[in-house]
Amino acid sequence: MAIRLKDLAEIEGMRDNQLIGYGIVAGLNGTGDKDQTEFPVRSIVNMLTRMGVKVNRKDVKVKNIAAVMVTASLPPFAKPGNHIDVVVSSIGDAKSIQGGTLLQTPLWAADGKVYAVAQGPVSIGGFSSGKGGGKSQKNFPTVGRVPEGAIVERPVPISFQNRSFVVFNLYTPDFTTATHVASAINTYIGQDAAHPLDAGTIRVSIPKPLQTSLVKFMSKLENLEVTPGNAARVVFNERTGTVVIGKEVRISTVAVAHGNLTVTIREETKVSQPAPFSSRVKGQAPPTRVPGGITMAPGGQTVVTKKPEISVKEEKKKLVLLKSGATIGELVDSLNRIGVSPRDLMSILQAIRAAGALHAKLEIM
């Protein structure tokens, strides 16, 4: 199965850059930060002061604002004026930022420079409503997005033209995949220009005639089809009961039998009650109580009996033989014949691995 090089690797230096900023969401319907949260109120006071409005901190009591952290990813080659999405997350004790508007927020990169400015209405992709003990909620009301809410103000400096070489970094390092990538590139160029430096890095020397049209050359390279050499791997997710088995998984000769033993113990209580009008005749002895809560009285007697029931049930499963070199399809077909569930499949594969017959790496999420 051939995969495009652009889906297997990325060009070194052509990556996203993380941005972060502190902002205020206004316009909330009484679901903002409480008065005890000082920093959002101070932020509002400072902002109003810069706008020429002088207010006293003690006079400001609002519940329709929330302090938030704003995050975004700046893609490579983003130019001033481009729009990017931002994520808004409450950092105070606001109940919801639904319906709020993010006020102008500068976004900084790790170098301390502002690369974008965010502002706009917040969408939480759900809702939160309720009063008293009743509440209905969908998704997280304290985290939202502002689609295309940030405008890029500064580009990331990337030198791409007039390069003599480029480096491809594989998403999943593998020696076989790196060798296949280098071979595909050399076949396309017609010369020995690509060299794998390690399991995850391939260095490509660019011929001089192609250095002036580097964009077109890279477009051709990233669309080259390569057959990756994936490692044999089995992934379990015990929380969801999901099992994913790679096509490279192989099994040595092994016999598998899987069955469940169920033991049920149940105790049934029965009561024998005398007639409702049974009573003590004058001159008879009064009722007596014996251990076990049974009342003895002339003319009637209540008897409590306990009848235990024990049942044992064992599922009858067939013994399945998996021959050496069995593929993933043969494995699944064989295990389906004995009627295993995904959770049973986890136990079976772990037992086969412990027996040394499963040639793959097990990963539990």
Walk me through this protein's architecture:
By secondary structure, this protein is of the alpha+beta class. The protein folds into three domains: 125 residues, no CATH class; 68 residues; 73 residues, no CATH class. The strands form nine sheets. A six-stranded antiparallel β-barrel has the order 3-4-5-10-7-6. The two termini are 27 Å apart.
Which properties best describe this structure?
365 residues, alpha+beta, six-stranded antiparallel beta barrel, four-stranded antiparallel sheet, 26 strands, 16% helix
Q: What layout of secondary structure does this protein have?
A:
Elements: E1 3-4, E2 9-11, E3 17-26, H1 38-50, E4 65-74, E5 83-90, E6 101-108, E7 114-121, E8 127-131, E9 134-138, E10 143-152, E11 165-170, H2 175-189, E12 194-196, E13 201-205, H3 214-222, E14 225-226, E15 233-237, E16 242-245, E17 250-251, E18 254-256, E19 261-272, E20 288-290, E21 294-297, E22 300-301, E23 303-314, E24 320-322, H4 328-337, H5 342-354, E25 358-359, E26 361-364
Largest beta sheet: strand ordering: 3-4-5-10-7-6
Radius of gyration: 36 Å
Q: State the oligomer.
A: single chain
Main β-sheet description: 6 strands, antiparallel, barrel
Percentage of β-strand residues: 35-45%
Helix content: 10-25%
| Alpha carbon gap, first and last residue | 27 Å
Mean pLDDT: 79
User: Which outline best applies?
Assistant: flat
Can you count the beta strands? 26
Q: DSSP helix count? A: 5
**Contiguous uncertain segments of 5+ residues:** none
Number of domains: 3
What structural category do the secondary elements indicate? alpha+beta
